[in-house]
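step=encode ok
step=design start
structure_in=
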C-alpha cells in the first residue's frame, strides 16, 4: 500500500489518471444501488432460515423495509413459549 501511495506522489501523470478515472466511476455509484445490493445479500442469507422456520414452525422471516438506513426484519408466525 505504501508503494502505491509513493507511486501516486512521485508520478503526476498517474495521479491525474487516477483522478480522472475516479470521477467517471463516481458518476455510476449511488447509495440506492448500494442499499439494493445489501438487501439482496440479506435476502439470500435470510431465505434458508425462513424456509427452515416455515417447515418447522409455520413462521417466516422477511425483509420488510430496508430504506433509507434501517433494516427491518419481520417475523411472522407463532412464537415459541
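sequence_out=
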Amino acid at each position: 500500500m505504501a508503494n502505491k501511495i509513493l507511486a501516486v506522489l512521485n508520478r503526476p501523470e498517474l495521479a491525474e489518471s487516477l483522478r480522472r478515472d475516479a470521477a467517471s466511476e463516481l458518476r455510476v455509484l449511488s447509495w440506492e444501488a448500494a442499499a439494493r445490493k445489501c438487501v439482496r445479500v440479506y435476502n439470500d442469507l435470510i431465505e434458508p432460515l425462513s424456509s427452515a422456520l416455515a417447515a418447522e414452525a409455520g413462521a417466516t422471516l422477511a425483509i420488510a423495509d430496508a430504506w433509507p438506513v434501517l433494516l427491518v426484519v419481520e417475523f411472522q408466525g407463532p412464537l415459541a413459549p
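step=design ok
step=annotate ok -> The longest helix spans residues 31-57.
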